[in-house]
From TrEMBL:
UniProt entry keywords in alphabetical sequence: DNA-binding, Transcription, Transcription regulation
Official protein name in the record: TetR family transcriptional regulator
Any one Gene Ontology molecular-function term assigned to this protein's record: transcription cis-regulatory region binding
InterPro entries attached to this UniProt entry: Homeodomain-like_sf, HTH-type_TetR-like_transc_reg, HTH_TetR, Tet_transcr_reg_TetR-rel_C_sf
Alphabetized Pfam families for the sequence: TetR_N (PF00440)
Keyword Ribonucleoprotein: no
Length: 224
């Protein structure tokens, strides 16, 4: 129901002014963009990046291929937005619900949350690893997200060593090993299947936690 302030010529003018100064995409536009991003993820996961044409992505989303250029400027724009969206979703899933009481538990929790997200979102993670291994998004020759992740891991390991919770090994090497393991995990899940979640949600994190922790991971003596 429209209020009385919007009735008559003045109300119409007010509506037009509000529409003209509105900033950013509308709710419908955002929903359409999410639809196209999800369609791109599913298409690339199924046929690979090279074969994921605008037509194939649009067909999966049940829309016209022209909408990709309308919303993202080009196929490249959609691919870049898709990659950023996946990374954002991963980052949000990696945030702990509660503060960890040690660097050891923080590392274990981070790896466990990552494994859980991979198990529950395998197609998207398989797509993301394509960009981690090969810069197929175009533009920069160096994967800036990987470089950023390596530096964050290295700093985290170094801090844990200063607190006496991690063994005094090379922090850069540990960060590289962890990053490579996280990159490979989606393919490992795909190749083995995700029927036994314990293998990935408990055993996989503890492989790395117990290798560098002065004290063992919290779940080392758990069931199983």
């Amino acid at each position: 129901m429209r209020c009385s302030a919007c009735c008559g010529p003045d109300g119409v003018i007010r509506i037009l002014i509000m529409e003209s100064v509105r900033e950013g995409p509308s709710f419908i536009e955002l929903a359409r963009r999410r639809q196209l991003v999800d369609a791109a993820i599913e298409t690339i996961a199924e046929v690979g990046l090279a074969k994921a044409s605008n037509a194939a992505i649009a067909a999966r989303a049940h829309v016209s291929p022209g909408l990709i250029n309308y919303h993202f400027g080009s196929r490249q724009g959609l691919i870049e937005q898709m990659r950023a969206t996946i990374q954002q979703r991963v980052d949000e899933a990696m945030e702990p619900i509660e503060a960890d009481d040690s660097y050891v538990s923080a590392l274990e929790g981070m790896l466990r949350r990552f494994a859980t997200y991979c198990l529950d979102n395998l197609p998207a993670m398989l797509v993301l690893t394509q960009f981690t291994r090969h810069d197929q998004a175009g533009g920069a020759t160096e994967d800036t997200e990987r470089v950023k992740g390596l530096e964050e891991l290295r700093s985290f390991i170094t801090e844990g060593q200063r607190c006496g919770q991690f063994r005094p090994t090379d922090a850069r090497l540990v960060a590289s090993v962890l990053m490579n393991a996280m990159t490979d995990l989606p393919r490992e899940i795909r190749d083995r299947g995700d029927t036994d979640r314990v293998v990935f949600e408990r055993d996989w994190p503890l492989l790395f936690v117990n290798s560098i922790a002065v004290t063992e991971g919290a779940n080392h003596h758990g069931d199983g």
